[in-house]
Write a structure and sequence with these properties.
Helices cover 34% and strands 12% of the residues. The chain is an alpha/beta fold and 355 residues long. The chain has one domain: Aldolase class I (TIM Barrel, Alpha-Beta Barrel). The strands form two sheets. It has a seven-stranded parallel beta sheet with strand order 1-2-3-4-5-6-7. A two-stranded antiparallel ribbon has the order 8-9.
């Protein structure tokens, strides 16, 4: 039986040392898929045409509050173009959420008066999609003015005192531009998120191996770590980030990050019309653990020699589709892996204790 067959049958969370840190109390609120951009690597493909009715958005807020969530991120599509966007913020405020955020492409928030209106209703955070400078951002978003509006959004937020976080998707089109982009950022949080190949074609033109991307990611970190309070790199094995391990936030690390989502609600809210509420009496920490364990085992894999690495227990490994893409290019993940010898680390936050 191969290593991944064994992992599929084993609950790896039982191997961890007890971690007293609190799990995230933040969740994603699904607003629908309607969008005013045409991002080349959008998870939703051509189905970006409909939004969710307000009563179902309010239902998510109600469930999230009952489940112990304290912060919400409205996410689409592009939530700001929802006809009831301001009502969503008002509703989240009425439910007494401490953090009220919108995941946005910035094509609307370049309007400073609009941003100010939303802040007066309770918005206190934005998570902006910004993947590269100038023409790179425009090409990724499929919109000529995407970069200028994103920069204007950051400027408006800084002027008004609104917290700004950044998501950059790391793909073949964007990874070389990360160091230059990072020099320009004046934000609270910067997330570099490796392209999720499981949502795309096996021969995706966005494919680039982790060895190449990691070098540019490290340069980007060097350029901004003294200015940006929180930097995260998601969905990359630890062995590609030696010397920078504290920035890696894969599944077993990000569940302790207050800015990340509770995965138990993330999956349930994708089908809010038919949601079953029998989980509401359960512990949100255990539900989150269960969802993460299921996802990380079903969609990720490891090379056999990974078992020799001290990070074996706390590392997700590779997306299964990344493995297929690597083999498509006559290579293998086994060739890319560089196990770090030593006693197995059982604390998922081992590298992040000093951040």
């Amino acid at each position: 039986m191969g290593l991944n067959s064994i992992l599929n049958k084993k609950d790896m969370t039982r191997q961890f040392d007890y971690v007293p840190d609190s799990h995230t109390r933040r969740c994603k609120i699904n607003t629908g898929r309607l969008c005013n951009a045409d991002c080349r690597f959008c998870y939703y493909g051509d189905s970006r045409t409909e939004n969710i009715e307000f009563h179902l958005i309010e239902k998510q807020l109600d469930i999230a509050k009952k489940f112990g969530m304290e912060s919400v991120d409205f996410s689409g599509g592009e939530p700001t173009i929802h006809k009831d966007f301001k009502k969503m913020i008002e509703s989240a405020n009425k439910f007494s959420f401490k953090g009220i955020c919108v995941v946005t492409n910035g094509l609307t928030f370049h309007n400073k008066s609009f941003m100010k209106d939303c802040m007066e209703l309770g918005l206190n955070d934005i998570l902006l999609s910004l993947h590269g400078i100038e023409s790179v951002q425009n090409r990724v978003m499929g919109t000529d003015n995407a970069y200028l509006r994103a920069i204007k959004t950051i400027e408006n937020a800084n002027d008004l005192g609104l917290r700004v976080r950044i998501n950059s998707v790391v793909s073949n089109m964007t990874y070389r531009h990360l160091p230059l982009l990072s020099k320009e950022l004046n934000v609270y949080n910067y997330n570099m998120i490796l392209f999720k190949y499981c949502f795309d074609q096996v021969n995706s033109p966005d494919f680039v191996n982790h060895r190449k991307t990691s070098e540019y990611i490290k340069q980007a970190i060097d350029n901004c770590e003294d200015r940006i309070e929180m930097i995260n790199v998601r969905y990359i094995p630890f062995c590609f980030m030696r010397g920078y391990e504290k920035y890696v936030t894969n599944f077993h690390q990000k569940k302790y990050d207050p800015l990340e989502w509770n995965n138990a609600l993330f999956f349930r809210f994708e089908n809010i019309e038919d949601i079953c509420l029998d989980f509401l009496g359960n512990d949100p920490v255990e539900e989150n653990d269960s969802a993460i364990e299921k996802y990380s085992v079903s969609d990720y894999c490891k090379a056999d020699k990974c078992i020799r690495c001290r990070d074996f227990l706390i590392c997700d490994g590779f997306e299964r589709t990344y493995k297929n893409l690597t083999e498509f290019q006559s290579s293998s993940i086994s060739e890319e892996v560089k196990p770090e010898p030593g006693k197995k680390i059982k604390d998922p936050l081992y590298y992040r204790r000093d951040t």
